[in-house]
From TrEMBL:
Tail specific protease domain boundaries: 115-281
Protein name: Peptidase, S41 family
Domain of life per record: Bacteria
Transmembrane segments: 7-27
Xref: Gene3D superfamilies: 2-enoyl-CoA Hydratase, Chain A, domain 1
Pfam families reported in the protein's UniProt record: Peptidase_S41
Protein species of origin: Enterococcus faecalis TX4248
Amino acid sequence: MSIKKYLLFYIISTCAIIFVSLTFFFLPLKSIDSRSYEVLHTISQYGVITNKDEWRNILELTRYGRKVTNVDNLNTLVYVVNKHSSVKQISSDKDMDNMETLKLPSISKYEDLTIINIPSVYSNDDNFSIKYASKLTDLIEYTSGNIVLNLSNNYGGLKEPMIIGASSLIPNGMLFSNINNKKEKYPVYLKNGKLFGGIPGTINELNLYKLSLHKKKLGKKVAVVINNNTASAAESLLLALKNNPNVKVFGMPSAGYTSVNLGRFFTNQNSDNYWWFVYTVGYYETIKPIKGK
């Protein structure tokens, strides 16, 4: 072999070795648990990062998540960069059930007042979401006199069944705007009992809530009761209701957790469990706690 051919072979071989080494360094192997890397990579691309200096330190110290194998430690890290983000390990059907809140809206009485209680709703079952929205729609429809909505201790969950269920009290049109991690604005609209717009992927665009729509009741006086546990999706309902000038808010300031979140499951071929990752991709344009009177 001539010297030139030998040098060429040596250079090509060296470059190939370097390329493979870099590939193994920067891309986690699927044969090991790469979920921590995938979680941090998702945040880097789409997430809202409230402390960028701390985020850079985390990436450096953990080698972009490669050194993190404990889901509890990972949960602590994602909470540091955004308090609305979390990671949970799901190891059984019971763990999955514990993530869901399957309570329907209800009626309670206080002296002469009829109060409509609107609870949190966390569910992967579209049928339950439809049932929730239908129940809320009917309770509002068949309540005589002025309306009292109780959102206290509603931690949020799915905004669609809440807003669509109360849509007879909300004017059609733009409700509010979402702001993504690039400061881009995405308006959210209500029309004919359906939600449109928002940051891509954050609204159930299947529009499965095929309800018997009732006529708008925008002339009725509506009192909304909140406290400092009124958060997230419940605050989005509150923002939507405030487009109606006949809506008045009473109680303590809300939690101020008006974040726009997405959820995603991460699996690994060498593990029977999977991780449920919730991350913040934006905020509502109004991010301050909503005050009652």
